[in-house]
Amino acid sequence: MKKLLIANRGEIARRIIRTAHKMGIKTVAVFSEADRNALFVREAYEAVCIGQAPSKESYLNIEKIIAAAKQTQADAVHPGYGFLSEREAFSQAVEDAGLIFVGPSPNSIRLMGDKISSKQCARTMNVPLLPGTENSVSDLALAKTKAIEIGLPVIIKASAGGGGKGMRIVYHVDQLEEQIGLASREALSSFGDGSVFIEKYLPAPKHIEIQIIADKHGNTFYFHERECSIQRRYQKVIEEAPSPSLNAQLRKEIGEAAVRIAQSCNYSGAGTVEFLLDESMNFYFMEMNTRLQVEHPVTEMITGYDLVELQIKIARNEVLSFKQSEIPMNGHAIEARINAEDPNSEFLPSIGVLTEYEIPQGVGVRVDDAYMKGQEIPIHYDSMIAKLIVHAQDRRMAIEKMKDALHDYRIEGVNTIIPYTQFILNHEEFIQGTMTTKFVEHTFQEFLNSSMDLEESEAASLVAFYHFLREYKKVKVPTRK
Ligand code: MV4
Predict the structure, then answer these.
(1) To the nearest 10°, the Cα dihedral for 191, 193, 194, 197?
(2) Number of domains the chain is built from
(3) Pairing mode, if any, of strands 356-358 and 206-214?
(4) Whose CA is nearest to atom 25 of ligand 1?
(5) CATH number at residue 193
(6) Where are the beta strands (DSSP E) in 278-322?
(7) Do 284 and 375 reside in the same domain of the chain?
């Protein structure tokens, strides 16, 4: 591999460029008109404009990306996350163009991209699954019988789904029919596939995901877990590694289950197997993400491995001669996503120019970011402007380091979710490590109240200062002669 094209933008494009250059591989950035002045464009060895700002005309346009690779004589393509990263057609198009795809085969993406087929893979590998339908539900009478057999509440999920689309929770059988219809129609319009299935609904699970690293010679490893229970509308807010809920025994069991899932689809590259963990510490396979994840840095911090470097080595057909028992797990890492959204206004994206921007520094502090002071955040893409990652000896120290780092982060011109992240870090449930996927829903009002209190006292002090400026001359301060 001599020259790698990065089919992505923002912080992850910069992240991939950094490792490629470290390995002596040249890079090609592809960019939209909105990203002409972006840092990743400047940092790449070469850059090609592939179209207008809307993703469909640029970062989602397979032909333009392949053409840019040909034009620059790149020999490999890294898809990053989001955009085309989990499209079977993209992996295939890259392969068909005679280029190396830094990611799994089209077949692995297809098998894991569909939840019904990925659950079928799990079943054949004896990986625990929640009770549910093995196939898509079409016969409503049968669905009803099944739901009663599973026990309510049940959850309806779209097989092609993602991001909570086509998902419905059903508490009463008499709602089942209507909800299946709604979920299926939503899935059809969002994904072009209306297949839905039913499984038992866990009211407050933890979300645990296992990092998988597999070479093309049958060696598959787990690089431990990340806990990502704190999510808002299926967007993660804080991720950490290791999970405060797993012991060595359970870690091994889940890790080995994740390896079996990867083997079931002949997986190669970096991937993530997601599980739900119930209050009795039972784990259930949920889905597999066939890409590098946003939160991969917490795994890098505790294992000491550069996951992008491993992806590139795997793509070059190298053999990974690790021993599972020798994959390190040191200390504790936490990542906070820095999104340009206003937590006090329903997380509305906050656009504008970064009039002030200074990142925190220190031992065990890492910032993967996309913009610098004076730059404008484009409206066309997601609102994540940076990731702040900290690493310390233990969880308690990592939380303190994260608090300090957030305090030191200077961002002006746009609102960010930092105040909300700070609220989480000070919340007893987070500190105890007992938080579940219900955390945000359960505590959000608490946050709004606390930020209201803060705003109220700020307003009160401003009023006091206003009166001081108006009146202070009237105050006769006795002076001594
Ligand atoms: C579930 C669940 C409870 N029980 N499935 C949310 C997104 C999609 N990937 C799957 N999701 C869930 N599936 C069963 N059977 C709860 C969720 C869920 C969730 C999962 C992970 C992290 C955050 C979440 C927030 C709400 C619901």
Answers:
(1) -100
(2) 3
(3) unpaired
(4) 437
(5) 3.30.1490.20
(6) 283-289
(7) yes
List the CATH number of the domain containing 305.
3.30.470.20
Contact 69, 5 (CB under 8 A): yes
This prediction has a pTM of 0.95
Quick one: which of 197, 106, 198, 199 has its CA closest to 159? 197
Query: What residues make up the domain containing 289?
Result: 206-440
Give tens-digit pLDDT for 320-362. 999 999 999 999 999 999 999 999 999 999 989 999 999 999 9
**Bridging pattern class, strands 26-32 and 46-51:** parallel
User: Which member of 15, 87, 110, 291 is catalytic?
Assistant: 291
- Biggest CA–CA distance in the chain, Å, is 98
Same domain, 435 and 320: yes
Would you say the CB of residue 207 lies under 6 angstroms from ligand 1?
yes
Between the CA of 206 and the centroid of ligand 1 the distance, in Å, is 9
Q: Distance from first CA to last CA of the chain, Å, rounded?
A: 85
- pLDDT score at 305: 98
187 and 216 co-located in one domain: no
CA of 204 to the centre of ligand 1 (A): 9
State which ligand 1 atom lies nearest to the alpha carbon of 154.
15
Cβ of 133 closer than 6 Å to ligand 1, yes or no, is no
My answer on whether 339 and 216 are in the same domain is: yes
Residue 478: its pLDDT value, please? 66
Q: How far is the CA of 202 from the centre of ligand 1 (A)?
A: 8
Q: What is the pLDDT of residue 161?
A: 82
The per-residue pLDDT for range 207-243, each reduced to its tens digit, is: 999 999 999 999 999 999 999 999 999 999 999 999 9
Structure token pair of residue 381: 């893409």
54 and 7 together in one domain: yes
State the pLDDT at residue 49.
98
Task: Name the closest-CA residue to atom 5, ligand 1.
Answer: 201
Active-site annotation holds for 14: no
Residues 160 and 45 in one domain: no
Task: Choose one of 119, 186, 207 to mutate for the ligand 1 pocket test, by most ligand atoms within 8 angstroms of C-beta.
Answer: 207
Of 200, 234, 279, which is best to mutate to test ligand 1, by the most ligand atoms within 8 angstroms of its C-beta? 234
Mean pLDDT, the chain cut into blocks of 10 residues (481 residues total) = 98 98 98 98 98 98 98 98 98 98 98 96 97 93 94 97 88 95 94 96 98 98 98 97 98 98 98 98 98 98 98 98 98 98 95 97 98 96 98 98 98 98 98 98 94 80 88 72 61
Instruction: Tell me how far apart the alpha carbons of residues 467 and 470 are, in angstroms, rounded to a whole number.
Output: 5
Distance separating alpha carbons of residues 61 and 288, to the nearest angstrom: 24
